Amino acid sequence: MIWQPSVSMEILRRKAHLLSNIRLFFSERNILEVDTPILSSAAPSASYLNSFQTNFIPLDSLEKRIFYLQTSPEFAMKRLLAAGSGSIYQIAKVFRNGENGRLHSPEFTMLEWYRPQLNFEQIINEVDALLQYIIKTKPAIKFNYQYIFQQYLNIDVFDISDAELKLLARCHIRGVNDNWNMEKNDWLELLMNHVIQPKLSELDTPIFIDNFPATQSQLAKIVKDMDGNNVSKRFELYIGGMELANGYDEILNSDELRQRFKIDNQRRQLQHKTQMPIDENLLASMKAGLPECTGVALGLDRLMMLAFNQKDINAVKTFKFERS
Q1: What residues contact 285, with CB distance under 8 A and at least 6 apart?
Q2: What are phi and psi for residue 81, nearest 5 degrees?
Q3: Residue 119 has what pLDDT?
Q4: Is the CB of residue 307 less than 8 Å from the CB of residue 134?
Q5: What is the pLDDT of residue 174?
Q6: Is the distance from CB of 231 to CB of 145 less than 8 angstroms?
Q7: Which domains can be identified in the chain, with CATH numbers?
Q8: Residue 272 contacts by C-beta under 8 Å, 6 or more apart in sequence?
Q9: Cα 321 to Cα 2: distance, rounded to the nearest angstrom
Q10: Among 58, 72, 77, 128, which is least packed by CB within 10 angstroms?
Q11: H/E element holding 189?
């Protein structure tokens, strides 16, 4: 019956226990739990994100203001960091328009935390420690992005053309045809999702992949690797062939971030998507002094899928989207 929850009562109890253990993990490390607004006057500009928007109309006015449901609590949490909060974490409801399926929902729960005290390697180790603490995983192993493509597709991601990637995708992925025209990063993402990601499940342990191409930096710092390639200080975490988390050595330069936002909006325009307002509060906080920090966003519903041996995200959500 449509009114009933999607989740079993047993999983509901196990969810409560898992959340309690997560809070204990962070409490033992003296990391402060915080709460930030779900609505914002700005939204991420990344072209792969589609935000929900709504209108605020004051009772005594017909004038309306556009607000967006957060796709992540990141921007507000960084403003807290700049204000001197120290290490913080949040268990937040987040929203992404258009995403719905076995591993996706328009509304889901994200665990996000930031650590001024930890460098890039240390934050990876902390994610690994959390997984072992919460769901008893094996110790993780780590590969860089270039190696993983060499290993599974025998290509160098820094020395391959868009046309070659397109041909490779057509050979390996059913349904890709010659009419598809995408950017290099889109082809790489397609190959990662459909070819490499399923193979990672065969390793039967958590996998961290780091040193993404600089063009996939998002909000991470950019550095040179040992071969002189520009790479982003960013990692993704995979377990059982499923992406679970994304982490950064966070960019601190507000002018550089503003430029990235502008490039994102140019890309959105080319894709006939709405351009997003730039979060001036975030940029102002960065100018005021965002500390050196690393951060992680982890899909909590997917973590619960792994913990409770479920194959569909709706099995761990109290009410699936269609019953909202």
Answers
A1: 78, 79, 81, 82, 83
A2: -60, -45
A3: 97
A4: yes
A5: 87
A6: yes
A7: 9-140+205-323 (3.30.930.10)
A8: none
A9: 11
A10: 58
A11: helix 184-191
Task: Region of 98 please: left (phi>0), alpha (psi -120 to 50) or beta.
Answer: left
The backbone torsions φ and ψ at residue 125, rounded to the nearest 5 degrees and listed phi first, read -65, -35
| Contact indicator for 234, 210 with CB cutoff of 8 Å | yes
Of all helices (H) and strands (E), which one includes residue 115? strand 107-115
Residue type, 91: I
Q: Which amino acid does the sequence have at 260?
A: R
What is the spatial distance between Cα 267 and Cα 218, in angstroms, rounded to a whole number? 13
Give yes or no for a contact between 307 and 135, defined as CB atoms under 8 angstroms apart.
yes
Query: Are 135 and 303 spatial neighbours (Cβ–Cβ below 8 Å)?
Result: yes
Read off the pLDDT of residues 92-149 as tens digits, 9 standing for 90 and up. 999 999 988 899 999 999 999 999 989 999 999 999 999 999 999 999 999 999 999 9
**CA proximity to 196, closest of 155, 249, 247:** 155
pLDDT value of residue 323: 87
Q: Containing H/E element for 88?
A: strand 88-95
Q: For residue 295, give the 3-state DSSP assignment.
A: strand
- In tens, the pLDDT along 210-222 reads 999 999 988 999 9
Beta bridge partners of 236: 209, 246
Sequence length of the chain is 324
Per the structure block, which two tokens stand in for 142?
């780590």
pLDDT of residue 91: 98
Which amino acid does the sequence have at 166? K
Predicted local confidence at residue 177, as pLDDT:
81
Best CA proximity match to 290, nearest among 298, 299, 279: 279
